[in-house]
Amino acid sequence: MTGSPGGPDGAMPGVPDLAGTKPLVDIVGLPRALELCLTTRMVGAAEARELRLAEMVVPGADLDTAVAGLVAALLAPDPATVRAVKQLLAGAPGRTLGEQAAAERTAQAALQRERRPGGST
Description:
mainly alpha
């Protein structure tokens, strides 16, 4: 994976757009975001993984297998569990540890009720 927030000649064409600056700063921090945006240098796959800009790096020859494995793993859990986990993770940044633990208990109880015979699914 390579990418550049600037032009191919290294000249910065303007202000980064497409709402990319906020997630970039959130992920890599302000100093690194400034360096990446202002220098427009290319970021290789290993560095992108190190910076958490990429979740996974695989050789090109293994890409299809890696994608198929990831898709299979993501599709394996039942939809109710997926929804509950997504809601828990999305809400976590705004909760204290105690509030998150309570939300987890509530989600677990709801899933257990749904799975009981006669429960709603």
